[in-house]
Design goal:
The protein is an alpha/beta fold and 391 residues long. It contains 16 helices and nine strands.
Amino acid sequence: MLVLKSLMQAHGIEQSAIAAAARVSQPTISQLVNHSVWPKRRTAEIRQSISEFLAGRGIDAVAAFEEVQAVDAACTNISQPAHAPADQEGDDNMLLAKQVLHPATKKHFGLFRDPFSDDALQGADDVFMTPDVRYVREALYQTARHGGFLAVVGESGAGKSTLRRDLIERINSEHAPVIVIEPYIIAMEDNDSKGKTLKATSIAEAIINTIAPLEGVKRSQEARYRQLHRVLKDSSNAGYSHVLIIEEAHSLPLPTLKHLKRFFELENGFKKLLSIVLVGQPELAMKLSERNQEVREVVQRCEVVNLLPLDQHLEAFLKFKFERISKPITDILDANAIDAIRARLSNNVGGRKGVVSLLYPLAVSNLTIAAMNLAASIGMPVVNADVIKGL
């Protein structure tokens, strides 16, 4: 663990305060202070933000990031994650790298398809729905059809992209008169020193190019925004609604977040011309915090919904995945294995009550696949708790 943890305990500093100062999630700070695992993105910026926070409390931060032997058993019940390979898909909070079901494992368990692969998602019937997910799904659709400003927030692997794909599939399958606008976000960062920021001008171009692809985008700013308003009005008069979807929205710079309010306020009479959906990690919720006065006008108009961990729905999720490929869960996992998965992905955090749950679909899938591969390699007929603990 880091010396930072001892400093926090000595001065009564909660992880939530450090997380807010560094603009990251609390699980990320938990992994940092307990296991010395730094986020793959914004590392230097996070380190600087924490140092400045400590300095503001009159704490010498020189040694805060040095590693020491962990002595608090309550904080070390989860194995330190291995260093991620270059092609790891996932987040700093995932305990396992991207896993692939081996051919020998499929043969061992009598499987002909991987129940957790992206190819297993062929439509809405293949998406596992908790009451929480069902609410977010319907909120997305109603926003797209009837207007609104919605932010969907969740950890990496929580299912945000799946719900975005489901929304577009639902719009297409129901022939809903909704035009989906998705600006390209490749290399998008929240400042120009690390990548390319998404600015209001780029969003305007994306809207014009999507709704009126045969029109050339005007060069001057005044003409471009007049053109934008006109094409939205013309499309609305033709019976269409419009939804702007921005993924990785936690990387939006604050000025662009502020400008989104002005896009949202475009109207034709009483009718709003553009719905907005932001999809991002917990840092997005921090940017949209009521305490962030810089974007208060956006916060007042934007509904934030969170994708929660599976928690009590863990067994139902695994059962659903295996039933989609006509395989009873009892042929793969015994009851103790499910409890072991829950324990493996629930992190007791020192200095706080309760646990931090990492029971998100991607983490559960990766852990289950790794356990199945291990069980097959040692000849176990099903995955049990000992196999999970052996990972």
